[in-house]
Predict the 3D structure of the following.
Amino acid sequence: MEFPNVKAVAKANVYFDGKVVSHSIFLANGEKKTLGLIYPGSYHFGTEKAEIMEITDGSCVVTLDGSSEAKTYKAGTQFHVPARSGFTIAVPAGICQYICSFIA
């Protein structure tokens, strides 16, 4: 996937001792996205804004806050995270790559 006419932030967002890394981009219309990768492990993230997480490579297992159901997502799928909530994302093996879109 390509994003024309973007502003990219060179400084990475680094979480969990470098096991989750992303870069922020801003589209021409001001929309922010992050492009990142997740190494094997299990990580919890809180959200302020609602998010759409598109998995572009690899796979992960996601449990949204307030749910006991864990769902597997593979490349070409996505999941939605409500605002002011969170999710646990686990990568069993390999590297999971994603695009996160923030919804106003």
